[in-house]
Amino acid sequence: MRACVLALLFVAGLAEASRAADQVIFVVRHAERADQGGGATMPAQGTIPNDPPLSEAGKARAAKLAAMLASADVKHIFTTEFKRTRETAAPLAEKLKVEGVMSASRDPQPLIDAVLKTTGNVLIVGHSNTVPDLLKRLGLKETITIAENEYDNLFILVRRDAGDPTLVRLRY
Predict the structure, then answer these.
(1) Structural domains in the chain?
(2) d(Cα 30, Cα 46) in Å, to the nearest integer?
(3) Do residues 154 and 24 make contact, with C-beta atoms less than 8 angstroms apart?
(4) Which residues share a beta bridge with 125?
(5) How far is it, in rounded angstroms, from Cα 42 to Cα 2?
(6) Which residues are CB-neighbours of 22 under 8 A, at least 6 positions away?
(7) Per-residue pLDDT for 1 more than 90?
């Protein structure tokens, strides 16, 4: 029952956003990684030594995300250079026939610039330590935190023609 209510709220929110907004930006942290290595530091530039794929739970979560966003009219998908972000976005990208664009996790401004230049709805897959900054750079004024063991946040940022963006935070 709870899932049904959340799904109805989600769909109602999207319908409202599509009427009143220029753009809906879905932002998630990557799904569970195979080594469950929370807190790992980002590698040196140009290398990706700690780049595990998704775990089985992560693959299931990525499929769930794709099912949720399949009819959300996503036109652009952005990930970082890490497997776990690309694999989180892959089921939706495949379903929608949208090619994901990789952006360096250490330098988020080019990604933000690209998102702000696009038209249409967007999915961004980041990390627990990058998603809050991405949301800020997209205009969110409130501070968001994501715990190391949280993989189920779905942030829906609605950018309007004028004024501050609106944020809806769901769990999936």
Answers:
(1) 2-34+44-171 (3.40.50.1240)
(2) 20
(3) no
(4) 28
(5) 36
(6) 119, 159, 160, 161
(7) no
32-46, 55-69, 130-144: least confident range: 32-46
The H-or-E segment that residue 81 falls in is: none
Closest alpha carbon to 109 in 142, 140, 137: 137
- Average pLDDT, stretch 112-116? 96
Least confident of 44-53, 88-97, 132-141: 44-53
What one-character DSSP code corresponds to residue 33? B
- Model pTM score: 0.83
Tokens at residue 80, please? 């970082």
Would you say 107 and 120 are in contact if contact means Cβ atoms under 8 Å apart?
A: no
